Amino acid sequence: MCGIIGITGRDDAVDGVVNGLRRLEYRGYDSAGAVINDGRELRVVKRAGKLGELVKALGDTPLSASTALGHTRWATHGAPNDRNAHPHLDPSGRVAVVHNGIIENYQELRASLGDGVRFASDTDSEVVAHLVADELDRTQDADLFTAVRTVLARLKGAYSLCFVAVDDPTTLVVAKYEAPLIVAHADGVGYCASDVAALIEHTTEVAALLDGQVARISPDGIEVTDVDGASVEPHRYTVDWDLSAAEKQGYDHFMLKEIHEQPQAVADTLLDRLNAPAPGQPARLTLDELRIDEGEFGRIDKVFILACGTSLHAGMVGKLAIEHWAGIPVDVEVASEFRYRDPIVDPHTLVIAISQSGETIDTIAAASHARDQRAPVIAISNVVGSTLAREADGVLYTHAGPEVAVASTKAFTTQIVACLLLGLYLAQARGRLYTSEVSDTLGRLEQIPAALEQVLELDGQIRELAERYKDVDYTMFIGRHAGLPIAMEGALKLKEISYLHAEAFPAGEMKHGPIALIEDGSLVVALAPAGHVFPKMVSNIQEVRARGASVLAIGTEGSTEELKAHADDVLTLPEPPHELAGPVLSVVPLQLFSYHVATARGEDVDQPRNLAKTVTVE
Ligand code: AGP
Fold first, then answer.
1. 63-67, 431-435, 446-450, 531-535: the lowest-pLDDT one
2. Closest Cα to atom 10, ligand 1: which residue?
3. Confidence band, pLDDT 50/70/90 cuts, at residue 131
4. Are 148 and 172 in contact, with CB atoms under 8 Å apart?
């Protein structure tokens, strides 16, 4: 989704803004723009397309000043073209704004300005610049900070907004409501950004604005107030990511780098989870942050896992783990559906909200819908200080490091690991497992990183398969039990980066309809590890093969000999250290397969069409 970066107090503010936009490219966008404030005028350059177009245009119109603001836009209102790109100016060119989110009442606000007012774009955002400029005109001695606060009272919707005004050349004014905004000040320079990725090259000491907060940023410092002007505190924290983690480090794409980072990411997520409550006491599994009494978990009689996309698939594995170890019934639900129905939620319902970014609006809203009904919420997130993590009663962080590629990989495997930890934690809290059983199981999970290294060695073989299957018309992924979420994740990965038609089904459901799609030339990817559902998977493989499909089977050491008799191609994975850890291993060949198919087809792997990394609008 859209990205914002603002800098004030550096001679090369425009270069800094362009670098910041580069670090925000991963969010997904279709146009980019910048404004500089040199105290005489606001100069705007904006272009549809990739950042390179903006850089070229900036080269043609060199801009220099110590205050600049940049934006990457992911179109919602109005086509992705030059005129709809941000920043937007008011008609007199006095105020410029960039905006993430949606101003829901923009038509009403436009109408309130009268018929004579011309708009230069079709966006919902431009009207905000008009309103702030009007406010400055109306109140002779008002400054930008005051004028913005007055206008905010009229806006409905979600926003992170950043303004500059020609009369105030060293100031950025920012406001946040239901869309993330980070501010920072280091070495006499003030910054704002839509996420920390744009700031870590400058500082790791940042503050996240909370809903309803407004800030004035200048080279002297940052002042934060509520909309009435009362001084308030944002959420200050230290970012523990280093700059190298957010760079490609020799890999062709972030996605490939992130796939290869999975052994380390999983090891980091498992690290230091056992702590003794007092000397001599047995070590117990702990969460990163818990703001509810552990005893409450004994009273939980139902769990909802809420998430979107890849995180939802991790939640499906979480269901298996919690039901298996903790013995509590679990429903897994798409967050955007949960919030618009009447789920039966009460203080005995535990809600687990999973989000890599912690900023997905649907997941945040679904979690808050549950909290309104007094259900405790635990967040699983990769981003320390994210909105979801801040608002939840407890947090389990995945320590995957920054995930830049739109297609989620290391976030997914670490989310599964976090779900396994949570399943064990709940079992421990409810007395379903002895502490020794928890630590034994944890010991087995600690073997996952080494097994992942082995899986990554299949890369060459997978690349050859991708070459062979790259033009297939239709791919069906099938699996059972812990293989089903991975079949779904495999299909999502393939479609999002290669744009091939791919779907996933529970293998047992195929005969109830989907098998009608199978014909000569279809590809079926079957998750078939050794285990209790393996014989059923073999039957399902035979059924699709009999109808003309080629079968690529993902097996384990204990299942591949038999698979070779039924499938066209077989990939052999090591046996997982625990059946529920199997998905962490079996998803990796599917990530690599999607990656190699997409690159063989010449697609833009890290920034696939139409998609955004962090989905901050509904
Ligand atoms: C995965 O490859 C996707 N890009 C997408 O499905 C993603 O997982 C989803 O948007 C949820 O994001 P979150 O984990 O940040 O909430």
1. 63-67
2. 309
3. very high
4. no
- 162 classed as catalytic: no
CA atoms within 13 A on the CB side of 176: 26
Q: Which residue has the higher pLDDT, 349 or 249?
A: 349
H/E element holding 411? helix 410-429
Question: How many CB atoms are closer than 10 A to CB 25?
Answer: 18
- For residue 87, whether the previous peptide bond is cis, meaning omega lies within 30 degrees of 0, is yes
Q: Nearest Cα to 527, choosing from 539, 512, 537?
A: 537
Amino acid 74: pLDDT: 85
* pLDDT tens column, 208-229: 999 999 999 999 999 999 999 9
Tell me the CA end-to-end span of the chain in Å, nearest whole number: 11
Q: What is the rounded average pLDDT of the residues 306-326?
A: 97
Question: Does the annotation count 156 as an active-site position?
Answer: no
Instruction: Label residue 140 exposed, middle or buried (CB < 10 Å: 0-12, 13-18, 19+).
Output: exposed
Domains and CATH numbers, the chain: 3-239 (3.60.20.10), 257-446 (3.40.50.10490), 456-600 (3.40.50.10490)
Q: Residue 483 carries which side chain, given as an amino acid letter?
A: G
Residue 311 Cα to ligand 1 middle (Å):
6
- Give the distance (Å) from ligand 1 centre to CA of residue 488: 13
Residue 511's Cβ-side half-sphere holds a number of Cα atoms within 13 Å equal to 9
Using left for φ > 0, alpha for ψ between -120 and 50, and beta otherwise, residue 368 falls in: alpha
Closest CA to 258 of 456, 77, 64, 24: 456
Residues 308, 297: Cα–Cα separation, whole Å: 25
Q: How many angstroms separate the CA atoms of 315 and 325, rounded?
A: 15
The answer to whether residues 588 and 493 touch, using CB atoms and an 8 Å cutoff, is: no
CA of 250 to the centre of ligand 1 (A): 25
pLDDT score of 27: 74
Q: Is the CB of 496 under 6 A from ligand 1?
A: yes
Catalytically annotated residue among 257, 410, 493, 613: 613
- b/e map 195-233, b = 16+ CB within 10 Å: bbbbbbebbbebbbbbeebbbbbbbeebebbebeeeeee
pTM: 0.81
Residue 615 Cβ inside 6 Å of ligand 1? The answer reads yes
Distance 307 CA to ligand 1 centre (A): 9
Determine whether the shortest distance from the Cβ of 363 to ligand 1 is under 6 A: yes
